[in-house]
Design a protein that fits this description.
The complex is a heterotrimer of chains A (228), B (407) and C (252). Chain B is α+β, with helices and mostly antiparallel strands and 407 residues long. Helices cover 53% and strands 18% of the residues of chain B. Chain B folds into 2 domains: 197 residues, no CATH class; 198 residues, no CATH class. Chain B has a 6-stranded mixed β-barrel. A two-stranded antiparallel sheet of chain B has the order 11-12. The chains are: A alpha/beta (228), B alpha+beta (407), C alpha+beta (252). Chains in contact: A-B, B-C. The complex binds adenosine-5'-diphosphate and magnesium ion (MG).
């Protein structure tokens, strides 16, 4: 069963008088439970593609369907609702609210989701334990290392069992060892919780963790076939 | 949690928060304190005006107001006084007095004064002279030579207690009447003009000098609450012969006071707007800065699925915190200053000439009116929130893609 | 020796007391006589009044009629600017007439103590100069000599309750009833102002002080001088002259 279905998506950005075609006629299907990497050099369109999947950006042309929802038919608040409850995001950096501790950052999205107060703390603590952050619940982002911060972001993304987690170069700001640790956690979550992961990277080591590699270059997918 | 986040956010830049809070504190303080100050002046003017032989309600013979001559006195005031008394609330005080313009004279000086014949006991609670004298003794009822004069008059006349003061006035038969009095006491009043204007003798001394039998010039009534003057006046008017007598309230007797009160009300609103206008720039500026610095966070929150109205609310909660804390501190400061100044008041005698002119005393005792406090706080908090809605809306409208592009 | 001491002691007592000599005249009669002497039964006079101030001086000529202590009427004859301004006094009351507006006003009490025409005489000085006789008790406190005549120094104290402003007056009256000096004191017995008669000459058939000087205490350069140009006594003056109607028609 596919969780992401993209047909004929184009996206062009205008920067001054220059038009940059970030995505060209993209067709992509991602199956449920995948652990897929979008791989390509800088500027190839990885972020744009993830943004469109996540509903943060709107394609110029083409259809996007995620978890059974056709984006073209959805209202803005419907999109917000979908992102809030069904999609987890992990960005390259600045994923967390600096004024909240690790556990509070996780709890906060749950509050937005409407999870009741008692459950929030329990679930936040449990998920932080799972990503290996026992004992760091009450640290603010500034008191955590880059790897720990990204793990909090992963914890937040999966805490409410989303249909899919989109991670845009989650290891780009980490050293390779830490990056590997993060990927192991993501992989573990993918396996244990059957959460679909799509992450982008230009790092070979990271790609090696993916069970499916989607190569993108100059806005075009080179190889959409699954590795499995 | 929104509250917790807002609270922590405002302290991310303590310097900026403290600056804007200080602006709010000063704003609220100045609104409340200076308004209390102005109110103090107005209340003072009213109290002075009413206590300076005006009273809340006054009853005259018809014609006395336009021509306060002896002919227009209240003849045989007994039955009238009884009717007035019968229509007063229990806590009211009443005094009948004789007043006539006269000349006070001693060896070196002379001046026009208002000769007032009173019963000191009756004046207690009715006029300032009922509070007694500052120096010396009060006139004795029935005494033919006792006189109490104001401090300023005493100084102007270069005289002292025990000295003679000659008073001259026209009597009921239009003959020049003069009588020698002995200064028995000195009263002090808020206004120098009052101290120079009035001299007090016993009713019988005034009656004897003016040859008016048992007559009086006016009956003055003092109420616990000045606002009840109209109702009491109506009741009295219904009970007495309004052809022969006039019933007037302090508002009619002192139209200037009423006008001042209205002017002051206008000033207060204007003052609030001026202070607020000054604060608005600070509030908008600070909120905008705080919002622009954190656009990335708002973008993240929107990416995570937070609705725009919740972001708007989050920003407004932060502003509300600053406004509420500032307001609380400003109120505390204003209230404690007013309390500290208390009954001692602030002496503005440096500028007293001008105040005297306006009928105010040089010592101002600020008075806090609940309505003013509510208005000041409402203006600052409500309008403060309204103006910070603009930066908040900017935060709410940001899209995640825009926010991420701001590297 | 004892007798001599006793006599000396008696003498010293008299000297110390300074009054009470058996042959002294009644002080009240002296004062009354002096007032009557100045006024006569009736009189008609032309007086030049000089108001002197540190930086200016003003002169005017006044024509006056008096009848006893009660009534007087006078008009300004010169300078032309003030000509016709009149004052009528009947008893304690006064009226003034201004020819420019052709109006008579009764002086309200407030104006009685003000100066008459800017001089050092107040309206009261003019209206009430006779209450010295009845409102005060008089006592001779000293004797002096003036141009060969005895001068009685009289201390006049207001009677209790008398509606007069002075704490004391001191009069110097010659045995021939000519007033030499009248000094006005406040209640603390401090001099406020004094009227001094500077020249005594034959005028109107009798010896008369022809130059009066009213001066405030401690004001060397502020005084008013009355200079009698002519004076007649005992004229047959019609009663009608001391009326408001008459005030409106200056007899100049
Ligand atoms: N908001 C934007 N405005 C203009 N050009 C953009 C914008 N976002 C991306 N691009 C351009 O689109 C292309 C793809 O960018 P992006 O998706 O960020 O690539 P990647 O994530 O693979 O580095 C690049 O050439 C980039 O410059
Ligand atoms: Mg990118």
């Amino acid at each position: 069963m596919s969780i992401v279905e993209i047909r004929g998506v184009d996206k062009t950005y205008q920067q001054g008088k220059v038009f940059v075609q970030a995505l060209k006629n993209i067709d992509l299907t991602v199956e449920k439970g995948s652990f897929a990497a979008i791989a390509g050099p800088s500027g190839s369109g990885k972020t744009t593609l993830l943004n469109i999947i996540g509903g943060l950006d709107v394609p110029d042309r083409g259809d996007v369907r995620v978890d059974g929802n056709a984006y073209a038919d959805m209202t803005r608040s419907g999109m917000a609702e979908l992102r809030l409850c069904r999609i987890g995001f992990v960005f390259q950096a600045y994923n967390l609210l600096p004024v909240l501790s690790a556990v509070e950052n996780v709890e906060y999205v749950m509050q937005l989701q409407g999870v009741d107060k008692k459950q929030r703390r329990e679930r936040a603590v449990a998920i932080l334990d799972e990503v290996g952050l026992s004992g760091r619940y009450h640290n603010r982002p500034a008191e955590l290392s880059g790897g720990q911060q990204q793990r909090v972001a992963v914890a937040r993304a999966i805490v409410s069992d989303p249909a899919i987690v989109l991670a845009d170069e989650p290891t780009a700001n980490l050293d390779s060892k830490t990056g590997e640790g993060l990927l192991q956690i993501m992989e573990k979550m993918n396996r244990e919780k059957a959460v679909t992961f799509i992450f982008s990277t230009h790092d070979r080591m990271v790609m090696s963790y993916a069970r499916r590699l989607i190569h993108i270059r100059d806005g075009e997918i080179e190889n959409g076939k699954p590795m499995e | 949690m929104d509250i917790k986040i807002a609270w922590r956010n405002i302290w991310r830049n303590p310097r900026r928060t403290i600056i804007i809070m200080t602006a709010v504190i000063i704003g609220i303080w100045s609104m409340i304190f200076l308004t209390a100050f102005m109110r103090g002046m107005v209340v003072d003017m009213i109290e002075n005006g009413i206590a300076t032989l005006t009273g809340d309600v006054k009853i005259y013979a018809s014609g006395f107001r336009s021509d306060p001559a002896l002919e227009n006195r209240i003849r045989n005031p007994g039955p009238l006084a009884e009717k007035v008394q019968a229509n007063l609330p229990a806590d009211a005080h009443m005094a009948a007095r004789i007043r006539v313009s006269a000349i006070a004279q001693n060896a070196r000086h002379s001046a026009g004064v208002t000769l007032v014949g009173i019963d000191p006991a009756e004046e207690a609670g009715v006029s300032f002279i009922g509070d007694g004298v500052a120096t010396g003794q009060m006139i004795r009822p029935g005494n033919p030579v006792d006189i109490v004069v104001g401090k300023a008059l005493l100084e102007k006349f270069e005289t002292k207690i025990g000295n003679k003061l000659i008073l001259m006035s026209e009597d009921a038969a239009h003959e020049m009447a003069s009588r020698a009095f002995r200064i028995r006491g000195i009263f002090s009043a808020e206004l120098e003009a009052t101290e120079k204007r009035f001299v007090f003798v016993s009713k019988s001394a005034a009656r004897g000098m003016l040859q008016i039998g048992a007559d009086v010039s006016e009956i003055s009534v003092m109420l616990e609450n000045h606002d009840r003057a109209d109702a009491v006046a109506e009741k009295i008017a219904a009970a007495i012969d309004t052809e022969a007598y006039e019933v007037r309230t302090w508002k009619e007797l002192k139209p200037m006071l009423k006008a001042y009160i209205n002017i002051f009300d206008g000033y207060i609103i204007l003052w609030y707007l001026v202070v607020f206008a000054a604060m608005v720039f600070g509030i908008i500026n600070t909120t905008l800065m705080a919002v622009f610095e954190r656009m990335r966070e708002f973008g993240l929150l929107k990416a995570l699925g937070m609705r725009p109205w919740r972001i708007l609310r989050a920003v407004l909660i932060e502003t509300a915190f600053i406004l509420l804390i500032g307001a609380a501190a400003g109120n505390t400061l204003a209230f404690s200053m007013v309390y500290a100044i208390g009954q001692r008041g602030i002496d503005l005698s440096m500028f007293a000439a001008g105040f005297e002119y306006a009928g105010m005393s040089s010592v101002i005792r600020p008075e806090i009116f609940a309505g003013d406090v509510v208005l000041a706080n409402a203006v600052v908090i409500c309008l403060g929130l309204v103006v910070s809605a603009y930066p908040a809306a900017r935060a709410a409208r940001i899209t995640p893609v825009e926010a991420m592009a701001r590297n | 020796m004892k007798r001599i001491f006793a006599a000396l002691a008696v003498l010293m007592c008299f000297a110390a007391a300074g009054h009470g000599r058996i042959n002294d005249p009644d002080p009240r009669e002296l004062v009354k006589g002096a007032v009557n002497y100045l006024r006569g039964k009736t009189s008609q006079a032309v007086v030049e009044m000089t108001i002197h101030r540190p930086d200016w001086q003003r002169q005017m000529t006044i024509k006056a009629w008096t009848e006893g202590r009660e009534n007087s009427i006078f008009w300004i004859a010169a300078p032309p600017k003030d000509r016709g301004n009149g004052t009528l006094k009947r008893g304690d009351e006064m009226w003034i007439f201004n020819p420019k507006v052709n109006r008579v006003i009764k002086l309200p009490p407030s104006m009685m103590s003000q100066s008459w025409q800017g001089s050092d005489f107040s309206n009261n000085d003019l209206a009430k100069s006779d209450n010295i006789v009845d409102q005060y008790t008089h006592e001779i406190i000293d004797r002096q000599t003036h141009q060969g005549k005895t001068v009685y120094v009289i201390r006049s104290l207001p009677k209790p309750g008398a509606p007069v402003v002075w704490g004391m007056q001191e009069l110097k009256i010659r045995e021939d009833h000519i007033l030499i000096r009248q000094a006005f004191f406040d209640e603390d017995q401090e001099l406020v102002k004094a009227l001094t008669m500077e020249k005594i000459e034959m005028l109107g058939g009798r010896l008369y002080p022809v130059k009066w000087k009213m001066q405030k205490a401690d004001q060397k350069e502020e005084y008013t001088v009355l200079d009698y140009q002519s004076l007649e006594f005992g004229l047959d003056i019609s009663d009608r002259i001391f009326t408001i109607a008459s005030l409106k028609n200056p007899r100049l």
